[in-house]
Design a protein that fits this description.
mainly beta, five-stranded antiparallel β-sheet, 4 helices, 22 strands, about 45% strand
């Protein structure tokens, strides 16, 4: 399908393709569940890049109970994000800089309660809790993900964690993408209408009518341009910039692939490993991206922890995953590390 507008990279796009879940994302999930960097379980991972139309979101009128009174009666609602603050420190500053949403909806015996949310200029992170009379299993699936006004698509991740027989806590992260230069405004309007919760083991599904609508202001930060390249045998990874806020760091990078490689491999994607010069290993979450010209050029962003204040340098090591798709095999190519000197001060 031909598009006559510029996508979020600022380049005219003649062929924008969805970026499907790849070997890279499978490896991210495996690392997330089994690796030493995190102990929490992943319930679902979505990476939907929709370039066919602009998503239009109407204002939703929500009803429910005053959140402070509900939260005071439900101890696990006092700080949902604390259930996800483990040794990777990914949500270390979330409490301090997030916005209290305080919306509660109950339908068909399932209460969904939005706790806090934060917008770092690239991604939106939402913490929430679910209380239900129906056993939804250890890793329930949620149908219906959050959307953002004026976005043409979004990538992201969703984690829902069981903490008792009837209670769950979750974190959703979405990265909206826009026409033009791809950058959002300083304020985003978020809409979320979960459609159902499904026990993935028993198949039990609870449908309901939940609806949330709220706005978030961008957390202020700074951007450092990088434009450094790691290149090998028809593969090129360019770390273009990173954006630092008080809640996260976002790496923006480009992947280019020679046509001969694409003739053999169905999918080509990249994992970034990041450490600094004082020994910190950073946890990475992919935000999704856009692919052009049948995969010859792709634009991605990843979110990682706040940079250690003692660090003076980041070392980024790309690993490119070449996949035949459909479980037919893949090959990994570790690229030369890219060293980035950090500029101090605002």
């Amino acid at each position: 399908m031909t598009k006559n507008y510029k996508d979020w990279t600022g380049v005219n796009v003649e062929d924008i393709e969805p970026v499907e879940v790849s070997e890279t994302e499978k490896q991210r999930v495996k690392q997330y569940v089994l690796g030493s960097k995190s102990k929490r379980k992943t319930s679902t991972l979505y990476r939907n890049i929709v370039a066919a139309a602009v998503i239009t979101i109407g204002v939703v009128t929500t009803t429910g109970f005053a959140f402070p009174s509900v939260a005071s009666q439900i101890p696990f609602m006092k700080n949902v994000i604390s259930y996800f603050q483990d040794e990777d420190n990914f949500y270390e500053k979330y409490d301090e800089f997030s916005t209290t949403i305080g919306q509660v909806q109950t339908s068909n015996g399932v209460s969904v309660m939005i706790d806090n949310a934060v917008y770092d200029g690239t991604s939106i992170t939402i913490s929430y809790a679910v209380e239900t009379k129906t056993d939804l299993g250890d890793g329930p699936m949620i149908a219906g993900s959050p959307s953002v006004e004026n976005a043409i698509g979004a990538g992201g991740s969703s984690y829902l964690k069981k903490i008792s027989a009837t209670k769950y806590v979750g974190v959703d992260k979405i990265t909206p993408m826009y026409k033009g230069d791809g950058k959002g405004t300083n304020t985003v309007q978020v809409s979320w209408q979960p459609e159902s919760f499904t026990n993935t083991t028993s198949g039990t599904k609870v449908k309901g009518d939940w609806s949330f609508d709220f706005s978030l202001d961008k957390v202020e930060g700074k951007t450092q341009l990088v434009n450094q390249t790691s290149e090998s045998k028809g593969l090129k990874i360019i770390i273009q910039s990173f954006e630092m806020t008080d809640v996260s760091t976002v790496l923006n990078y480009q992947q280019t692939v020679d046509s001969k490689i694409l003739e053999k491999w169905k999918d080509v994607s990249t994992i970034l490993d990041v450490v600094d010069d004082v020994g910190t290993t950073y946890y990475i979450e992919g935000n999704g991206g856009i692919s052009h010209n049948q995969g010859a050029k792709s634009q991605f962003s990843d979110t990682m922890n706040v940079i250690n204040e003692k660090a003076t340098k980041l070392i980024v090591t790309p690993t490119v995953i070449l996949s035949l798709g459909e479980g037919k095999g893949h090959e990994e190519r570790k690229m030369k590390p890219i060293e980035i000197d950090l500029k101090k001060g605002k």
